[in-house]
């Protein structure tokens, strides 16, 4: 749930503000706030998050102890999002900022790096084991995504429920260190959310245990951690950044490998053009299906109260069908 902004009442508007504060208490489960600090509610730990999966972790763990502002608006790509000048100004009043480093969101990282020392900056990539990127096929362009991400590591860590659990622990530890926060409430929030993620992990392990194919062909290299967690092989049309344009040579090599692996479904992402995926699917006589990278929720998903777990369950259903699992 996103928190509305409240402004300090003047003498003629006290009754109206009291009514609004009461509405906020009911809607958000937080205590009343009589003043505002930018987009954050007063009286709670002010947390900014770089994009949706981190936002969900912080809200689940922090509960009523935190006031959360997420930088990336619904439906927008997290990779290339550029914070507005107002967002950069608002970040300065945060107590903690959680993000993923290594060049995943260059403009967001630049804004975070410019914040004053009083704002705690937590790179959650430090809490999970990383997969190094490398050329995936002989005969392709031979470029590594290290040219996009300074250290050559894949940043899409949240697409493994196991990694999400590790990030929950890191968020819990960081929030617990903030003076005045209710550590017991944070611990309860973390425990409950980890239980959800653990159940999701079990569901994935069971659903993908026995499949006719274990190769997933994706529109860009976002699903490496999911593949590694469940004994799949990812074959990506473009690299770590969806903005990378694969050459004709790369497309030919991907199609050749997909045909050799008897791939029957080419996966594309709901927030990216599907042209290249459909081209390869036509080339090898395969179907297409959607995998959601869960970088953000669309307005429709928010209306339907989608969560990380519900979107990932939809991904699992697509994988089970596309890989011929039973």
Automatic annotation (TrEMBL):
Any one GO MF annotation of this record: metal ion binding
Pfam families with a match to the protein in the record: ZnuA
PROSITE patterns: PROKAR_LIPOPROTEIN
The keyword Mitochondrion is assigned to this record: no
InterPro entries named among the record's database cross-references: AdhesinB (IPR006129), Bact_metal-bind_prot9 (IPR050492), Lipoprotein_PsaA-like (IPR006128), ZnuA-like (IPR006127)
Any one GO BP annotation for this protein: metal ion transport
Keywords tagged on the record: Signal, Transport
PANTHER family: HIGH-AFFINITY ZINC UPTAKE SYSTEM PROTEIN ZNUA (PTHR42953:SF3), HIGH-AFFINITY ZINC UPTAKE SYSTEM PROTEIN ZNUA-RELATED (PTHR42953)
Family, per entry: Belongs to the bacterial solute-binding protein 9 family.
Name of the protein this chain belongs to: Unannotated protein
Organism this protein belongs to: freshwater metagenome
Biological classification of the source: unclassified sequences, metagenomes, ecological metagenomes
């Amino acid at each position: 749930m996103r928190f509305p902004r409240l402004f300090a009442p003047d003498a003629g508007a006290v009754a109206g503000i009291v009514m609004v504060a009461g509405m906020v208490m009911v809607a958000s489960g937080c205590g009343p706030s009589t003043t505002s600090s930018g987009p954050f509610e007063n009286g709670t730990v002010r947390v900014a998050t770089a994009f949706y999966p981190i936002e969900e972790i912080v809200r689940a763990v922090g509960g009523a102890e935190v006031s959360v502002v997420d930088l990336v608006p619904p439906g927008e790509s997290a990779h290339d999002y550029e914070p507005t000048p107002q967002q950069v100004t608002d970040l300065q009043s945060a107590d903690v900022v959680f993000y993923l480093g290594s060049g995943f969101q260059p403009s967001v990282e630049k804004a975070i790096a410019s914040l004053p020392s009083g704002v705690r900056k937590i790179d959650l990539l430090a809490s999970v084991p990383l997969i190094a990127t490398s050329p995936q096929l002989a005969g392709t362009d031979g470029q590594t995504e290290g040219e996009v991400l300074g250290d050559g590591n894949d940043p899409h860590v949240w697409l493994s429920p196991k990694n999400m659990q590790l990030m929950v622990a890191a968020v819990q530890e960081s929030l617990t260190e903030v003076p005045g926060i209710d550590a017991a409430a944070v611990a309860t929030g973390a425990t409950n959310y980890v239980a959800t993620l653990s159940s999701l992990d079990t569901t994935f392990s069971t659903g993908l245990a026995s499949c006719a194919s274990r190769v997933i062909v994706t529109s860009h290299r976002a699903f490496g951690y999911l593949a590694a967690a469940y004994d799949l092989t990812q074959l990506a049309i473009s690299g770590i950044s969806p903005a990378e344009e694969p050459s004709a040579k790369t497309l030919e090599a991907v199609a050749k490998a997909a045909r050799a692996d008897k791939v029957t479904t080419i996966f594309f992402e709901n927030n990216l053009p599907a042209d290249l995926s459909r081209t390869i699917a036509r080339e090898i006589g395969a179907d297409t299906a959607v995998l959601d990278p869960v970088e953000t929720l669309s307005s429709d998903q928010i209306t339907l109260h989608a969560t990380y777990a519900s979107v990932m369950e939809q991904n699992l259903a697509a994988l089970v069908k596309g890989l011929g699992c039973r």
